[in-house]
């Protein structure tokens, strides 16, 4: 209606209330509703049963089975069956605990934790942690998928909501751990939109690992998979030596020595057989490598000109061997008739960064760079141990294809050692406890996920055994014919 004094329009029905919105199914004919409602109910029921069976098979099927037995055959057969079941489980537990845990205990625990912890607290936690979102009256909530408990950790698979990134979860790792009653939480990306939360309840690497029995036969030494300890999942911790360069970083007392001596321990038969040559530089006056000098072909106990000359000599050998292999082979193998050379430098920074003589420092850095960048194919491996991972100390960390981060002081140091983004995937080397020396986060090139592991504890008594092992058997020259058979290279 036009206003008396102007041309503007007013709302024709200012007091009109919002029309009620009827659900769409109200408009359906009644006979269709009579058919659709029972069908819908049956579908819902079937879905519920399938879901229950899928998520809680043991919890649903075992009581159901027992109920059927009780109803069909009465009480005594049920008691008998229960006794047999308990006896079988006890015998299984006694005879083979690992398979019992895997096939009985973990599935039961998984279903228990799913129902009692995750399903129960999921909705509230997602809302309060701001991981669920509301848009136009609809709530988008991350979906709780499979839950697998392995005793020390629960693996909780999650489907994220649209427009959510794994970083949003990484930022809330602590709050998720507290909400679900775990000690810590790690986030792993499985595929687009699907992540897995590792909710850790206890540390499986709490106890030191004794070294295995010293092998006698070089045939068992696999240079691509040297076992130096155990990972937190219970598998052997294997380090690739052939075709790799290894950087081990950790604060004083973090257990760098145990990683080093675990490698030497496992290589011992191959060193004694002449298939591997060990060369060492220990600028700390031999405090570390001097504990078992017999394993080394050459050993220098300072960062003087001698150490630099040794590095330069090895760099020259690398170039010379690479020139000989050119066009013939791409990677060292035992049939070359030359040993794989493993150069161990304890406190690498003393040689290439803290050396006061600038000329020596530059020469050492150049030689080390040549060995790390070109030594892979001709069979030269550098095992560098470092306390301080700052950039000015090791400007060429990227040349090390395997990086081991033992206990570190700061989160930034973890990024420096393992590379960007690895800490966000859970590799919290700065959170490793002082009480667990030898525990490390390991990142190998080509392997997306970092691994947490603990090296063998090589005690002083073990080093005496190692010395005796070498004194008893003279180190032989490289076997050019059949003697090296079986050593995996
Ligand atoms: N894998 C291990 N398991 C149990 N204890 C270990 C392990 N590794 C080292 N230790 C213990 O931790 C202590 C420090 O170890 P180690 O000397 O190897 O550390 P480090 O990092 O080499 O120190 P530094 O830089 O001062 O030489 C030692 O008492 C050792 O017995």
From TrEMBL:
The lineage of its organism: Bacteria, Bacillati, Actinomycetota, Actinomycetes, Pseudonocardiales. This is Hypothetical cell division FtsK/SpoIIIE protein. InterPro entries: FtsK/SpoIIIE/SftA, FtsK_dom, P-loop_NTPase. Keywords: ATP-binding, Cell cycle, Cell division, Membrane, Nucleotide-binding, Transmembrane, Transmembrane helix. PANTHER family: DNA TRANSLOCASE FTSK (PTHR22683:SF41), SPORULATION PROTEIN RELATED (PTHR22683). Pfam families: FtsK_SpoIIIE (PF01580). PROSITE patterns: FTSK. Gene3D superfamilies: P-loop containing nucleotide triphosphate hydrolases. GO terms for biological process: cell division. It comes from the Bacteria. The chain crosses the membrane at residues 24-46, 76-95. GO terms for molecular function: ATP binding; DNA binding. Residues 234-415 form the FtsK domain. ATP binds at residues 250-257.
